[in-house]
């Protein structure tokens, strides 16, 4: 009679141990995974380079700069931008107040 509760407790402890091991294995592997650490390092390096570039392309080659210029010219031509307009900036809208005349009421 006592062996049945002991067997159930042993099964529950086994399940709990597997679950806890599964959770801690994931947490510990993320902290020590060399591939993930390399990815995080590259992200930080890119963020530093991006800050240094001042909003421009990071490590651009002349070919990439030429392609960017061609694409911006194509967009300017397609959407009616003037040669000096910055096609990467958000457009500015100007609204004028309508001129209202006197209202006459004929009753």
List the helices and strands and how they pair.
Elements: H1 3-32, H2 34-53, H3 62-79
What does this structure look like?
The protein is mostly helical. It contains three helices and no strands. It has helices spanning 3-32, 34-53, 62-79. The longest helix is centred in the first third of the chain and has 30 residues, at 3-32. The radius of gyration is 33 Å and the shape is elongated. It starts with a helix and ends in a 28-residue tail after the last helix. 0% of the residues are buried. The model has no long low-confidence stretch (mean pLDDT 81).
The ordered H/E elements are HHH
Number of helices: 3
| End-to-end gap | 102 Å
Cα shape: elongated
Quote the beta fraction.
under 5%
Q: What is the strand tally?
A: 0
Helical residue percent?
55-70%
Low-confidence stretches: none
């Amino acid at each position: 009679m006592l062996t049945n509760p002991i067997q159930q407790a042993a099964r529950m402890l086994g399940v709990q141990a597997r679950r806890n091991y599964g959770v801690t294995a994931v947490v510990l592997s993320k902290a020590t995974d060399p591939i993930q650490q390399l990815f995080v390092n590259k992200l930080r390096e890119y963020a530093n380079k991006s800050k240094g570039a001042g909003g421009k392309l990071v490590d651009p080659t002349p070919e990439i700069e030429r392609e960017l210029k061609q694409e911006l010219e194509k967009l300017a031509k397609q959407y009616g931008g003037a040669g000096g307009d910055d096609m990467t900036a958000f457009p500015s809208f100007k609204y004028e107040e309508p001129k209202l005349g006197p209202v006459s009421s004929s009753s």
